[in-house]
Design a protein that fits this description.
360 residues, Alpha-Beta Plaits, single chain, three-stranded antiparallel beta sheet, alpha+beta, 14% strand
């Protein structure tokens, strides 16, 4: 009888403790959700409205992992003998939920920062710098967080912890072996970090790599994807942009100069060609109105090299402008000065005059 009274008293006390724990955990969850929703409704607050949806599930899992460690729960369920499994499950769930929460918060911060910069505008240099930095740094932080979470989860097991201590005891030799075997991978990761900081390339930069013209489409820790103009993709390791020279047409600004070369005869009227270039540029929206130059840059025995220099707001527009100007200038010469087109001269001497001269 006395034992039943004591057990009943213990059950009631365990139930009270469990209810208190549920109330506290529920209060924490409701308080955080209420605060985020209130900040999301405030137009001056940087917290977005979808922040609650992003972190609600990880936060709930964190609180649930704490609840699993409450002894009152095991007492009410009659599972006191499974304390180890409850504790271990709580630890692993807590580590996984915290890792998930950190990644979600990191992505929210990235979206908040990038939201203030528009990459689609014409003058998007600053936007591309910020986007590239956060894009690479996000991957670095996520990689570090996942490695740390996996290490902490494995070290929570005593057997694995003993193995880890023995490995750390010989970490010098192991580090050297791993360093030699994975030096290319480590070098690529370090190159990715260097690109994020120094930014020799940025997202949407126009580059010429391995003789191919294209745009930087994606930058990861180990490789870079270059979108070629004909819709091919060139995959280049990040170390390439640190160790080898390449052309970056939009390193400091989006606007760019375009050139058109013509090879004509010496009879070409330069002034008329300059006037036609000005008229052509003024008739198209591709030209930004800044640079309009026509110069004779070289000459040979057979032709004269003429360079038309013009400017555009970005490289794709400059390409279209160059094609347009080249076609119009050639058409102008064909229709108005066909003798100015490059041709080969053949000098024929009067044979009758040569024969008469020989007789004398």
């Amino acid at each position: 009888m006395l034992e039943q009274i004591i057990n009943g008293h213990d059950d009631d006390q365990a139930l009270i403790y469990l209810l208190i724990a549920l109330i506290l955990l529920s209060g924490i969850y409701i308080g955080v959700v209420f605060l985020l929703r209130r900040l999301g409704r405030n137009p001056k607050s940087p917290v977005p409205t979808e922040a609650v949806k992003r972190i609600s599930l990880p936060l709930m899992l964190i609180l649930f992992s704490v609840l699993l460690r409450v002894e009152s729960l095991r007492a009410l369920l009659g599972l006191e003998d499974y304390t180890y499994w409850f504790t271990k499950s709580s630890t692993l769930l807590f580590i996984a939920a915290v890792t998930w929460l950190i990644i979600r918060i990191l992505k929210l911060v990235k979206e908040l920062v990038i939201h203030n910069y528009d990459v689609t505008t014409a003058d998007n240099l600053r936007a591309r710098q910020v986007y590239t930095q956060f894009n690479i740094l996000e991957r670095i932080v996520i990689f570090i967080v996942l490695i740390l979470a996996l290490g902490i989860a494995l070290m929570s097991f005593e057997n694995i912890r003993e193995i880890g201590l023995s490995i750390f005891a010989s970490a010098g030799v192991a580090g050297i072996i791993i360093g030699f075997s994975a030096q290319k991978l480590i070098g690529a990761i370090l190159a990715g970090i260097q690109i994020a900081i120094a930014q020799p390339i940025k997202i949407d930069d126009v580059v010429i790599v391995e003789g191919e013209w294209g745009r930087i489409e994606q930058i990861t820790l180990t490789y870079v994807v270059v979108a070629i103009w004909d819709k091919r993709r060139l995959i280049v390791p990040t170390t390439y942009f640190i160790e080898k020279p390449f052309q970056n047409w939009t390193k400091t600004s989006a606007d760019i100069l375009g050139t058109v070369f013509l090879y004509t005869d010496y009879n070409v009227p330069f002034d008329a060609l300059r006037e036609e270039l000005t008229r052509i540029l003024g008739s198209t929206d591709l030209w930004d109105g800044k640079v309009n130059v026509l110069q004779v840059t070289d000459s040979s025995a057979r032709h004269v090299e003429i360079r038309a220099l013009m400017s555009a707001k970005d490289s794709p527009t400059a390409w279209d402008l160059r094609v347009y100007v080249r076609e119009k200038l050639i058409t102008f010469l064909q229709q108005n000065y066909p003798e100015s087109l490059a041709h080969t001269r053949l000098y024929l001497k009067n044979m009758d005059e040569a024969e008469n001269t020989g007789k004398k």
